Amino acid sequence: MLEEILDIRNVQRAFRQVTANKGAGGIDGMQTDELRDYLNSNWQALRSDILSGDYRPLAVRKVEIPKSSGGKRMLGIPTVIDRLIQQSISQWLSPKYEGDFSFHSYGFRPKRNAHQAVLKAQEYLNAGYAWIVELDLDKFFDRVNHDKLMHLLSGKIKDKRTLKLIRFYLGSGLMDNGLVSPRREGTPQGSPLSPLLSNIILHELDVKLEERGHLFVRYADDCSIYVKSTKSAHRVMASISAYLEDCLKLKVNREKSKVSRPGQSSLLGFSFYGSSKGWKMRIAPKSLSAIKEKIRGHTKRSKPGPLLERTLRLKEIIHGWVNYFSIAEAKGHMVKLDEMMRTRLRIVLWKQWKNITGRARKLMKMGVVKSRAYQLANTRKGYCRTANSPTLLTTLDKKYFLKLGLEGFANYYYRKTTHQTKLF
């Protein structure tokens, strides 16, 4: 098995994936653009060390990023070489497990995605299963039990060298501020192996839920179970929480896990609302708060930089965000986000125009008569009130920003959902 994992065709495919993903280097400082030269000189020796069992992975570099819900998420960044080896293992093992995985599992799997999970949840709600058990696993990727995971892996992997290599990766230390600490549990996010390993251990949860006849969707460690009554929901919450903690050695976050109704639920950034035609999809409040915060971050008037640079970055954000949420009923939200974004961009421009003369000159270039231009340029109103003045609303309008390439949330959403070209 290990020879097949290290077959040159499999490794070349892994190399393409690792270099395409780019990403930061590990503790040795090597970057992805240096990997090709390293392999050209050292691949045979590296392969020989792995096959003989002499290879030892380097520690992963600890990085903490803020979570939208508060707190921090820990990432472990392996070296580029270890990412290549892990990617080779993952892409060779994944097809071996894919046939075993549950239909209800949607995360980190080929031809499966978050949209499918949310649409299936909507289907359950409209079939009458409108009480939701939302399970939150506390720091799941940091708490995976190594012994339990290795036991599950040994059921399918018979090559002891491969198991030993995976065990080395699970136990490789974590470097933080120059100090390496050992790891006895967890599969840090940032590792190419982590998605597959998380699905392998949580497949046990899928099997248990299916044995009990539950309807559910799971995307990585995000799991929601759908039942018909509040009594059933609380019973399921208690029994599945006990199973996760006693059998899978994971910890359920009791504060964040809850029994909810569709309107108060959250699944992969989406929520639901009732209508005459049943439960419909909407954008969850936390997702709206997050995109507003991102817009604020890229439209700070104190942040230097040309407007064109900002609009290009905003365009990328808009396209990515709308592509994801285009399956939700969200036209009103898109219009409001545009209004907020354009107001903040007007504030940026007003500050960049600096003084009375500069502001008046810019306004006159846009067709504002001289007296009106100087009247607004002399205003004592604050930035926000000035940005929403009739003069700026009619000069720095949608058409102005469209010429800069900034289509906006609403127009792009409409194009995505109707395949037409214009709404506003």
Task: Give your account of this protein's structure.
The protein is α+β, with helices and mostly antiparallel strands. It is built from 19 helices and ten strands. The strands form three sheets. The chain has a four-stranded mixed beta sheet, with no helix packed on it. Strands 6-7-3-8 form a four-stranded antiparallel beta sheet, with helices on both faces. The termini are far apart.
Main features:
424 residues; alpha+beta; four-stranded antiparallel β-sheet; 19 helices; 10 strands; 12% strand; disordered C terminus
**How many helix segments?**
19
- Strand portion: 5-15%
End-to-end distance? 58 Å
**Outline:** globular
Mean pLDDT: 91
Succession of helices and strands: HHHEEHHEHHHEEHEEHEEEHHHHHHHHH
Give the low-confidence spans.
420-424
Query: Order of strands across the biggest sheet?
Result: 2-1-4-5
Largest sheet: 4 strands, mixed
Number of strands: 10
Structural class, by secondary structure, is: alpha+beta
In short:
This protein has about 425 residues and is of the alpha+beta class. It is built from 19 helices and ten strands.
Task: Chart the SSEs and their pairings.
Layout: H1 2-5, H2 8-21, H3 35-52, E1 60-66, E2 72-77, H4 80-98, H5 114-126, E3 131-136, H6 140-143, H7 146-154, H8 160-171, E4 174-176, E5 179-181, H9 194-211, E6 215-219, E7 222-227, H10 230-246, E8 258-260, E9 270-275, E10 278-283, H11 285-298, H12 307-325, H13 331-352, H14 356-365, H15 370-377, H16 383-387, H17 390-395, H18 398-403, H19 409-418
Parallel strand pairs: 1-4
Antiparallel strand pairs: 1-2, 3-7, 3-8, 4-5, 6-7, 9-10
Helix pairs in contact: 2-4, 7-8, 11-13, 12-19, 13-19, 14-15
